[in-house]
Design a protein that fits this description.
It is a single chain. This protein is of the alpha+beta class and 256 residues long. It contains twelve helices and four strands; from the N terminus they run ααααααβαααβαββαα. A four-stranded antiparallel beta sheet has the order 2-1-4-3, with helices on both faces. Strand 3 and strand 4 form a beta hairpin. It is elongated.
Length: 256
């Protein structure tokens, strides 16, 4: 009951469907079934101490310093302590399974694909007219105008004009091949002559190159990508090859 109005399960399901979130929840249930089966088969568990530690971290993150703060937050979220702990356990199991499956593969993948993780701090001006682009390039090269002033005056993109052409840190894979080739073979601080793409004529300058390192953040990103791909494959296999009709019905009943 909410404000003396009853909310049935079907109301929640209909709301999910109307907001086009139904498939997302269905997918999460299937993912969880795969994780549960895989962790049980491998003897992977989480202890009450691990759940408590993660719960404490979550409370600090949300600034729930008092018991009363936590109780109020749980009520606001319309969940119980048991619901919270179950969710924490699921997330910890998922992380442990990912580590178990792919921990040894992350460093290998990073080494093999290191070039794709390299970054560059890049400045760019895009101009629609080739003659103007060539003229501005020479003016910058001859120090008749700074790169930043040229970007502010001539770039076709208003946002880039406001920041003097700064694109920020970019990975090699995020650049068009012809742009990436020119950028990563250039010297820092040297303006690159105009390169034509469908967007226009690009005048580029590298402020600095950032060599990829396997940081904790990068490690987690690679691990998550590997696990997501594995999970998608396992769900597809379960749906089309292994899952029994009653198991499908069980999942559907949770969503009905």
């Amino acid at each position: 009951m909410i404000n003396n109005q009853s909310v049935a399960d079907i109301d929640i399901i209909n709301a999910l469907k109307q907001d086009v979130q139904y498939k997302q929840i269905w997918q999460r249930i299937l993912n969880q079934k795969v994780i549960e089966k895989a962790t049980q088969a491998r003897g992977i568990t989480v202890s009450p101490e691990e759940i408590q530690a993660e719960g404490d971290r979550l409370r600090m993150e949300k600034k729930l310093y008092k018991v009363s703060d936590t109780i109020a937050w749980l009520a606001e979220q319309m969940i119980t302590v048991e619901d919270l702990e179950a969710g924490i356990a699921d997330r910890l199991l998922s992380q442990k399974l990912a580590e178990h499956l792919f921990k040894e593969e992350v460093e290998k993948s990073f080494t093999q694909n290191r070039i794709n993780f390299d970054q560059v701090l890049l400045y760019q001006i895009i101009i629609s007219e080739p003659r103007l682009a060539q003229e501005i390039y020479y003016q910058i090269k001859e120090q008749e105008i700074s790169f930043y002033d040229a970007a502010h005056c001539y770039d076709i993109d208003e946002k880039r004009r406001q920041v003097g052409g700064c694109e920020g840190k970019l990975h090699r894979w995020s650049l068009k091949p012809e742009i990436a080739a020119a950028v990563f073979s250039a010297k820092a601080g040297v303006v690159i002559s105009p390169i034509q793409t469908g967007q226009g004529y690009h005048i580029l300058m590298v402020e600095k190159f950032i060599q990829a390192e396997l940081t904790q953040e990068k490690y987690q990103e690679i691990l998550n990508n590997m696990f997501k791909q594995w999970l998608a494959n396992e769900v597809n296999y379960m749906l089309y090859n292994q899952i029994e009709p009653e198991e499908i019905n069980e999942v559907k009943q949770q969503m009905a």
